[in-house]
Amino acid sequence: MKLRITITGPRVHDVGYRYFLLGRAMGLRLPGFDASNLTDGKNQVVDIVIDGKESQVEAFKEYIENNKPSGAEVTSINISDYDGDVMPMAEYALGPYSSSNAQGKFDDGQQRSLEEDRMRS
Question: Which of 14, 60, 72, 85 meets the CB 3.0–4.6 Å disulfide criterion with 68?
Answer without folding.
Answer: 72
